[in-house]
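Is fe (ii) ion placement plausible here? Inputs below.
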Amino acid sequence: MTTEAEAEILTRTGPGSAMGELMRQYWIPAAASGELVADGDPVRLMLLSEKLVAFRDSSGRVGVMDHRCPHRCASLFFGRNEEDGIRCVYHGWKFDVEGNCMDMANVPPAQDFKHKVKAKAYAARERAGVVWVFMGDQSNIPALPDIEATLTPDAEVNAVFIQRECSYLQSFEGSIDTSHAGFLHSDLAGRLNFDTASPDKRGDFIRQPEYEITETKCGTAYGAYHPTEDGGNYWRVAHFLFPFWTLSPTGPIDGHVAARAWVPMDDTHNMSVYFGVTRKRKAGTNRLAGGVANFTDFEPNTTDWFGRWRSAANAGNDYRIDRAKQRTESYSGIEGLILQDTMVTESMGGIADLPFEHLAPSDQMIAVTRRRMLQAADALAKSGARPPAADTPEDFFIARSGYFVAPRDANWLDAYCQRLNEARPERQIAFG
Ligand code: FES
Ligand SMILES: [Fe+2]
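Reply from A.M.:
I modeled the complex. Tokens:
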């Protein structure tokens, strides 16, 4: 069971919090590259309870900084994005993407102290069509993580942002909770309503799977399995990656390249950022990935701190639940797995009451992952110990999720590595 004190650590990610500090050791996918236009409008970004402003300068570089002007705290969101910098409209101070003060327009030249003033800027990079931000120690910036779905050329990656009005924790835990698929995402006969076209056609089996769980160099992984009729085991392997990534096993492991970040905006809002590689997805074989990648039912984006990528079906309209369908066809009565997941996790409240829960054997992955996160946050806070893979971004490459069949007596991690090494001969992996 998760205690009150543990729940507090797991769900608080603002400045100075233990989990917030842990998250600041990693790069964070924050906005679609297309949201920022050279010399275009600045964008409000809420990340880890910090109010930031993002802009693209005349040269195409991205700046992400505290939205408060370091002069007298007016918001740079209202600034002028002009000639390689953003200019505060209160007294005309201007800053480049690194936060350097380029001009102190209301101060006579003899008294100018612009070299002593810096806006609080964070490192930003672009990869896979997404702007990434590093909010930790700006003098010690790691490389971007080798998460496979973000490594392919931009044109092959489909990045999808969807906001959820609840804690990042309960959101991502839905993605490592495999047994819910046979209920929430199924029809009344227990067949997954997204998986029937898969080559394995095993969408109806997984209501009571057995599990193996392991810690990895970059997070945790589980294998959910059941015996096949021909003497093997059918495995679904999935990963949690520090600090907030999940890889769901929604396709055959040989070609299923996808990852999803659950980025805390504040403690009761998160942005899921889905990276899926379109190149390897064959028509009809992976409708779950398609479900995320094709989600388009958004409210129009606004400039509000929480105005980006909100689902049009939401708590305010009960996610458009169809009670007649719920009686006759679908388990939930809600259309599509994105909304089904959104509904259950938001229905827990802004921050779920973790001590109120009764975790079951089917929740082992959640329990192990929480423990690992708590240990890592505690070690960082107490001794400055570097959290998993924070300094070794190449370690993330071991992770891919998907399903496969292996001989009954095969070790699941050996079988996993073998399948993956066959699929990716150019870069071999091993556990342990
Ligand atoms: S508050 Fe920004 S220039 Fe004065
Ligand atoms: Fe789900």
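Short version: The pocket of FE2/S2 (inorganic) cluster (ligand 1) is lined by residues 69, 71-72, 74, 88, 90-93 (CB under 6 Å).
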